[in-house]
Amino acid sequence: QFLALGTHYGKVYLLDVQGNITQKFDVSPVKINQISLDESGEHVGVCSEDGKVQVFGLYSAEEFHETFDCPIKIVAVHPHFVRSHFKQFVTGGKKLLLYERGWMNRWKPSVLHEGEGNIRNVKWRGHLIAWANNMGVKILDMISKQRITNVPRDDISLRPDMYPCSLCWKDNLTLIIGWGNSVKICSVKERHASEMRDLPNRYVEIVFQFDTEFYISGLAPLCDQLVILSYVKEISEKTEVECCARPRLDIVQPLPESCEEISSDALTVRGFQENECRDYHLEYSEGESLFYIISPRDVVVAKERDQDDHIDWLLEKKKYEEALMAAEISQKTIKKHKILDIGLAYINHLVEKGEYDLAARKCQKILGKNTELWEFEVYKFKEIGQLKAISRYLPRRDPVLKPLIYEMVLHEFLESDYEGFATLIKEWPGDLYNNTIIVQAVVDHLKKDPQNRTLLQTLAELYTYDQRYGRALEIYLTLRHKDVFQLIHKHNLFSSIRDKIVLLMDFDSE
């Protein structure tokens, strides 16, 4: 796996996937126009602005040199050049020439096309060669040596040297064309025998065609979608003059006459303010979803986002709930993220926004049975004065937290909300906290407010749980509370009320 990179100074560098230079070739003193590799990666074709063409083996002595009297813009070696019977390559300036090695290892050129201006791009796949000139895109069938289509250029007002045509083969029969702001996806099909007559046995059908918002610098297939490198111009807010913006890498879903944008990323490359559409190129590593964006000063490697990348993006946008859902759905495939860490970040985010009740509610699902984390979160809520918010969601069974946690919450209510305190005493099992400590706290508060019915009734309930039925009975009788009858009956306290029969008869037992 390597990347072949040509420079404006006539050098070709081979880089590994980390960007380290492994080999260097001095090809020409002027700009390298195009580089072509066969599928094996063993043979390289290079052409330059001074008319030089070289085809050579990286691991063999095989080499071809030719110099033309005009700049050579394109070169493409046969995809299977490594095999002896496929020693072919095409090159183009004003003509598209096919070179074939024949008898005595001599190279024989033949003209495939001429007369429509400079050849601007070429891509060879299987038995099909596609090339672009000033007029449009052609496809040649190398088996029949017949040209099977001509796809005209849409916007002839754009200079083809400034807004070059982008070509790529999705597979052996599908060509993708990007030119200006137009995209065409072409399918090569077999013609029925009854339709042939004097026509080629293959023809091309445009199956998708749409325009983009910006000019196209490169494109590549991604499953049934397209990756498009876009050249962007915008109006400067300061000068109100059109200027070059950062290029964009867009993923789109082709539709019959339009496209749906799936994602869009602005790329930061050095010197983008001075770059033109022709200064960017997009290459891709087939089967690996690796995309190389080449600019005059940078090579940017982009890869298809996995679920971890998607979660990163959601977290960056502070979409914590969506990130949590994505992690839960993909928990078997994500490698970088942990559901618990995302959940804790979500709780912190809600707390920072002041959504205390929602944060407390999410604790139930996120913290689960982790008592250590539960206790940590309770103390955090205490620090911000929001113990009441989390009280409703504290676990009461499986797991059970330390008694101190529940006592801390009860004390918080006892200091500011007698009704809330009474509700918790009713709802919480009495074994969650130290009953003696809470009883004493209530007694202390009753010293300040001895007639408070809410506190007295709650104290009676605490005494009942502690099996101090006599004291509970005294409070109910003092309050003339109807629960006294249930207490007497449930705990068989008839012997304790012999001297209180008259008082009980005055109660409204209903």
**How many structural domains in the coordinates?**
4
Spatially, the strands of the biggest sheet line up as 4-5-6-7
Total beta strands: 28
CATH superfamily of the largest domain: YVTN repeat-like/Quinoprotein amine dehydrogenase
**Uncertain residue ranges:** none
CATH architecture of the largest domain: 7 Propeller
CATH class of the largest domain: Mainly Beta
Helix content: 25-40%
Would you give an account of this structure?
This protein is an alpha+beta fold and 510 residues long. It folds into 4 domains: 3-220, 7 Propeller (Methylamine Dehydrogenase, Chain H), CATH 2.130.10; 221-304, no CATH class; 306-401; 417-510. The chain has 14 helices and 28 strands. Strands 4-5-6-7 form a 4-stranded antiparallel beta sheet, with no helix packed on it. A 4-stranded antiparallel beta sheet has the order 8-9-10-11, with no helix packed on it. Strands 12-13-14-15 form a 4-stranded antiparallel beta sheet, with no helix packed on it. It is rod-shaped and about 120 Å long. InterPro entries: Beta-prop_Vps41, Vps41/Vps8, WD40/YVTN_repeat-like_dom_sf, WD40_repeat_dom_sf. Residues 1-304 form the Vps41 beta-propeller domain.
Write the layout of secondary structure elements.
Elements: E1 3-6, E2 11-15, E3 21-26, E4 32-37, E5 43-48, E6 52-57, E7 63-67, E8 74-77, E9 88-92, E10 95-101, E11 107-114, E12 121-125, E13 128-132, E14 136-141, E15 146-152, E16 166-171, E17 174-179, E18 182-190, H1 193-196, E19 202-211, E20 215-222, E21 225-231, E22 233-235, E23 242-244, E24 248-254, E25 259-266, E26 281-285, E27 290-294, E28 299-303, H2 307-316, H3 320-329, H4 339-352, H5 356-367, H6 371-383, H7 387-391, H8 403-416, H9 418-427, H10 435-448, H11 453-465, H12 469-479, H13 483-491, H14 501-505
Antiparallel strand pairs: 1-2, 2-3, 4-5, 5-6, 6-7, 8-9, 9-10, 10-11, 12-13, 13-14, 14-15, 16-17, 17-18, 18-19, 20-21, 21-24, 22-23, 24-25, 26-27, 27-28
Helix pairs in contact: 2-3, 3-4, 4-5, 8-9, 8-10, 9-11, 10-11, 11-12, 12-13
